[in-house]
């Protein structure tokens, strides 16, 4: 304990001017979705529909991440430097990966994720792309100026690897590949340079037959897809700003999907639905088309998940359909190189627009009109919509008669809401084979009778720790007679707390007892009912602190008149020990007064002293050095200047001192 001193003698010398006080220290927080991927790059994405798994290769990270359809990681396959292209065996039992850093194709079992085989590609460096066609695994390989196409045949007892199958075509490095496994169509395009040549092979026979090589629109082909019927090719490349479509027979142009930005990916579902992906900071990233139909069915615009401008962007080759067409998986990244797997549900269905508009306010039990409109391609007049009303008496919703659309998609209905308060009307379209479901809602504030609610004790001051009963009074209501009483003590460390909840008595009263250790805001709450409006009443009551002081170092006590004094020798320093209700950084205010010749008490000044964590503060006053002096001292808590405002100003008792020889 460290004692510091004030000088009473100095104060007396200037006729009780302010004393220099010093303290004594004392005391001792199933819609479209996305999941973050722990990868550094994205090489390819593959969907295993049999086991509902998604594989994403990470060339820079040297691994493959496996997730379920919800994006939850199920396995991470490491030790695959510069892994890129992925392919799934026809029986869904193996996933093949082109591992350029090992000059191998690696096979992984799809239930245990264990590596089952590793095929060395002697003479074929840096395999990067894979495609299945006619029972063989085709791969694009080659370092700079050494590009080619090879095949891996696993149909016999031993694997058979054949290289240099690109024929008269010339590839600078490993080409991008696309295929239709059933028709035997294999398509290759330059991935590493701006060459605009595409090459179509028929690989249904013992040896691949080069069907056609031709210059087309594009170059730096990021992705190539072949339609399930083997008749069409769709490419994605840095130019043009659309996804062109070609015939597999002679590469003649058949049309284009106007995606509107740099092409970065393309994949075609088993039913022919085309997903065209673009590199787009400020426009939609994924565009859905029906095969051979050039108007969009649907599109997706990725949000911005980083601090920079522009939305997340689609990875090259970062699209893959689930085999049943129920989902489209997209790999995206933001400006901080954080990657995500986006799961797009029912993407082949167009998304209708549904609007609902209800009045802002309406009287209870009177008819109101709700209007709206359903718009979307191919939606006929008479399309049925369900209607649900939610209110205080039907919080889970009550079904109303369905409504049908007019020729322009508009609809309206009337309703007389039986309950007041917030009433919400939800209108829903169930969707069909080509349209996704849609819903919309709007709310109306329906009038209720005003409710009277009062709470007593406002402005009252109570002693520290007093148990104070607050009474809430509720006036007439329709059904609900339940009231809650909350107490919110001053200070950020004490939460607002429910102290009583119950049905009021026959007089409409509910009482709650609050332990008044701090100033407290008490609130009574009535939640309302179908015909009575909600109500709230507040009462702020105040609590004093608890103060006790003691004097030491005196040689006796005695009375002067009716007042008890502590007697000190003129050279003995008095010590005042104060205990006060503790609060963080709280200080006591110590005041000194001296009895003057005019028989009146005069203030010599005051100062503040911080309490210890045990609520104690001790101050020593320097002895005056002369006799015949009478003084008094007291400790106080002053709201706002004692370091906080959580209690009401409280003064301790005066302690009287008499200095003698």
UniProtKB/TrEMBL annotation:
In terms of InterPro entries, this protein maps to:
Host-pathogen_enzymatic-act, Quino_amine_DH_bsu, WD40/YVTN_repeat-like_dom_sf
Keyword Endoplasmic reticulum part of the UniProt annotation: no
SUPFAM superfamilies under this entry? YVTN repeat-like/Quinoprotein amine dehydrogenase
Q: Does the keyword Glycoprotein apply?
A: no
Q: Where is this region: Disordered?
A: 391-415
Q: Which UniProt keywords apply?
A: Signal
As given in the record, the signal peptide range reads 1-31
Protein name according to UniProt: WD40 repeat domain-containing protein
Organism field: Streptomyces alboniger
């Amino acid at each position: 304990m460290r004692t510091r001193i004030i000088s009473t003698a100095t104060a007396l010398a200037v006729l009780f001017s302010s004393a220099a006080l010093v303290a004594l220290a004392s005391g001792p927080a199933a819609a479209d979705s996305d999941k973050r991927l722990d990868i550094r790059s994205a090489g390819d994405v593959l969907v295993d529909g049999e086991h509902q798994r998604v594989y994403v290769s990470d060339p820079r990270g040297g691994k493959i991440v496996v997730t379920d359809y919800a994006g939850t990681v199920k396995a991470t396959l490491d030790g695959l430097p510069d892994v890129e292209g992925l392919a799934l065996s026809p029986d869904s039992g193996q996933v093949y990966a082109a591992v350029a850093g090992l000059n191998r194709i690696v096979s992984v079992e799809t239930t245990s994720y264990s590596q089952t085989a590793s095929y060395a590609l002697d003479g074929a460096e840096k395999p990067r792309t894979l495609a299945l066609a006619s029972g063989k695994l085709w791969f694009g390989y080659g370092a700079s100026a050494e590009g080619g196409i090879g095949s891996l045949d696993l149909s016999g007892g031993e694997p058979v690897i054949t290289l240099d199958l690109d024929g008269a075509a010339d590839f600078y490095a490993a080409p991008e590949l696309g295929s239709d496994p059933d028709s035997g169509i294999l398509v290759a395009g330059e991935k590493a340079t701006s060459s605009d040549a595409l090459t179509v092979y028929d690989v249904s026979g013992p040896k691949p037959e080069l069907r056609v090589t031709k210059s087309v629109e594009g170059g730096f082909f990021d992705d190539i897809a072949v339609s399930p019927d083997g008749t069409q090719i769709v490419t994605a490349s840095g130019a043009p700003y659309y996804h062109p479509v070609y015939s597999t027979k002679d590469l003649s142009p058949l049309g284009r999907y106007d995606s509107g930005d740099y092409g970065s990916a393309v994949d075609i579902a088993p039913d022919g639905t085309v997903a065209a992906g673009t590199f787009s900071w400020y426009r939609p990233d994924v565009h859905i088309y029906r095969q051979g139909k050039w108007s969009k069915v649907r599109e997706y615009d990725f949000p911005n998940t980083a601090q920079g401008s522009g939305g997340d962007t689609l990875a090259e080759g970062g699209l893959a359909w689930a085999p049943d067409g129920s989902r489209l998986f997209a790999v995206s990244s933001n400006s901080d190189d954080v990657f995500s797997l986006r799961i797009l549900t029912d993407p082949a269905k167009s998304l209708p627009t549904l609007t609902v508009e209800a009045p802002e306010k309406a009287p209870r039990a009177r008819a109101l009109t709700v209007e709206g409109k359903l718009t979307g391609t191919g939606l006929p007049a008479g399309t049925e919509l369900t209607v649900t009303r939610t209110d205080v008496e039907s919080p889970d919703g009550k079904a109303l008669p369905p409504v049908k659309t007019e020729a322009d998609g508009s609809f309206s209905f009337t309703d007389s809401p039986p309950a007041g308060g917030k009433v919400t009307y939800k209108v829903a379209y169930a969707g069909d084979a080509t349209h996704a479901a849609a819903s919309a809602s709007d709310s109306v504030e329906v009038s209720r009778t005003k409710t009277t609610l009062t709470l007593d004790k406002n402005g009252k001051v109570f002693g520290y720790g007093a148990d104070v009963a607050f009474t809430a009074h509720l006036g007439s209501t329709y059904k609900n007679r339940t009231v809650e009483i909350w107490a919110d003590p001053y200070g950020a460390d004490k939460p607002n707390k429910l102290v009583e909840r119950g049905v009021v008595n026959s007089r409409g009263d509910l009482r709650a007892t609050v332990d008044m250790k701090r100033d407290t805001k008490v609130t009574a709450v009535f939640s309302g009912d179908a015909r009575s409006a909600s109500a709230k009443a507040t009462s702020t009551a105040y609590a004093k602190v608890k103060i006790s002081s003691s004097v030491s170092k005196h040689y006796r006590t005695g009375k002067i008149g009716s007042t008890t004094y502590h007697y000190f020798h003129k050279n003995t320093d008095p010590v005042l020990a104060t205990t006060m209700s503790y609060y963080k950084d709280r200080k006591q205010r110590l005041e000194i007064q001296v009895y003057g010749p005019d028989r009146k008490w005069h203030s010599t000044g005051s100062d503040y002293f911080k309490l210890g964590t045990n609520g104690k503060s001790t101050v020593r006053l320097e002895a005056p050095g002369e006799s015949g002096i009478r003084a008094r001292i007291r400790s106080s808590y002053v709201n706002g200047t004692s370091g906080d405002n959580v209690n009401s100003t409280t003064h301790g008792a005066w302690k009287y001192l008499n200095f003698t020889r």
